[in-house]
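Protein in question filed below.

…
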Amino acid sequence: MNYDFCILGAGLAGLSVAKGISDLQKCKILVLDPAGIGKGASGSPIGLINPATGRYANKTWKAEEAVKQAKQNLKDVTGSSNRIFYSESGVIRPAMELKIAERMQANIQENHWPPGWCEWLSEKEIREQYPGLNCTIGGVKVNCGITVEMPGYLTLLCKYLLKKGVNIIHGIPFNVEYQTQPQPPVFPNHESDDVSTIKKPYWIINLANGDSITADTLILTAGIKTKNFDFWKGLPLIPVKGQALVFECEDAFPFKSAVSALGYFASLDGKTLVAGSTYEHKFDHEEPDEFGEEYITKRLFKVMPELQGRVTLKARWAGVRASTPDRLPILDYHKERTNCLVLAGLGSKGLLYSSLLSKQIGQHFAFNKELPVELRLDRFS
C-alpha cells in the first residue's frame, strides 16, 4: 500500500504531526513505531505547558503562538470525552535564591508578556496563596501554564487520529529504503499515467512481519533515536535522561497549580503527585534508578518541606529526551533525500512546541507555507 506520508515515531511529536497534516488535507498517513505509543520520553506521567522556562523564567520562542495552539489541540482531542487529563490552573515558580529571584523578576518585566500571562508575587503573597511553599523574596505565577496527564493525552490523540483515517502501527520492527528509481505505475501503459509523479523518489518500509509499504514522504519524529537512521546520524542532538517519581499523598496535594522549582511537582487528582525531573547528560542506562529517586526526593522536600513523611512512593519513570546546542528544535529537510523531513530536539518543551510546529508542517504541505527559518539545520554550520 502506498501512503502520502509515513511518520516514524508514535510519541508526542509524531502523533501531533499526523494531526497537523490530517487537519488540513485529505491524504493517506501512516504513523509507525517499533516500540509503541509514547514509549520514549513522551511517556512521562505528567507534562507541563509552560512558556516561562529555565532557571530564570525566560520567555520561550514563539510563546504566544505555541500556547494558543497547544490549548487548541487539547480541546480538539478532548472532544466528547469526560476524562479529565489536563488542568489550566497555572504554574507557580518560587525563587529559591536571591540571584534567581532578581533575574526572574526582571524577565517578567522586560519580556513583553501578554496581559495576565505572568505576574510577580512577593514572598508574602506566595506564603498566603501557597502556604508551605519555600521561596526567597518571591516568585513568578505563570497563569497560562497547563498541566497534562501524558498517557491520557496520547491515548485520546490516537483515537482522534484513527477517526480521521490515520493508520497507526506499533510494536513491529522495520527498516526503510530510499528509492530513486521510477516507481512502477499502478496501471502500466495506461494513457492517464502521470509520468511526473511516477519518477519521484519514494520510500519503501519493510516490516518485520513481512509486509512492505511505500510512502511519498518520510517524516522522522523519533526523538534521540532519529540518529539511529544512518542518513540522520549526524544530527546535532544531545541525549538528556530525565527521571520522574509518582507519589501517593496522605492528604490532598495542597496546590491546584503545578510547582516549578528545582524540578516540577504536579497533581491532577489531588492524591497522585508526580515529581521530576533529573537532567542527566551522562548515564549508562535508560532505566529509573536510585540516583534519580534520591535526587528528586531531596528537591521535593526542599521546595515543600511539609510533605516530608506525608507521601508514599508508588512508581518510578525514566526517558531520554533529545536536546540541541541552542535548545531550539530542529525542523528541516534532508540535504540529499529531499522527500525526508525531520522534527527533533524538542527537549523538555515537547508539549509547548509540538502543536505549533505540527500545525506549521500541515500548512507547509497543504498550502506550501515556508517552515520556520530559525529551526533549519544550517544554523549549526
